[in-house]
Amino acid sequence: DGGITQSPKYLFRKEGQNVTLSCEQNLNHDAMYWYRQDPGQGLRLIYYSQIVNDFQKGDIAEGYSVSREKKESFPLTVTSAQKNPTAFYLCASTSQGDTQYFGPGTRLTVL
Amino acid sequence: GENVEQHPSTLSVQEGDSAVIKCTYSDSASNYFPWYKQELGKGPQLIIDIRSNVGEKKDQRIAVTLNKTAKHFSLHITETQPEDSAVYFCAEDNYGQNFVFGPGTRLSVLP
Question: Of A43, A101, A104, which is closest to B101 when you measure between CB atoms?
Answer without folding.
Answer: A43
